[in-house]
Amino acid sequence: MKRFQFKFQTLLNIELHREDAVKQELRTLLYNLQKEEEILSNLRTMYLEQQEELARKQIGQISPEELKLYEAYIFTLSNQITSQQVKVKECEAEADDVRQKLIKISKRRKMLEKLRERKKKEHEYLFQQYENKQLDELAITRVQRFKSARVSLNP
Q1: pLDDT digits 0-9 by tens, 38-68
Q2: How far from the centroid of its chain's Cα atoms is residue 67's Cα?
Q3: pTM over 0.85
């Protein structure tokens, strides 16, 4: 009897490689998402620091020109925070898309692996049946030889 060979092994190998590639893509996207969140956090920190500094300066004396500069800078930081929030949302959406893609590929791979295991067990069962049949035939042949040898010895 032939040894076990899974006829969809090539497809399973392709799914394994696709899964690895998508995992790597997801790792890259999550790294980029983390960087974008750090940038957003830094912008928020700068925004709060500038507001606190402006509040301290307003307690004392501040020139109108300096006040305008602070307000313009705070407004710019606010715009940067808004645009950075959009970038973070885009990165999150992209990561979610890749996550869904990875889930689909993983399901296909798991399905193929389960099919492979089922076919392997079936093959092992058939092989065991084949071996048992061979042993039974061998035993029958030996018994028949023994009987025929016994009959020829008893004339």
Answers
A1: 999 999 999 999 999 998 888 888 888 998 9
A2: 52
A3: no
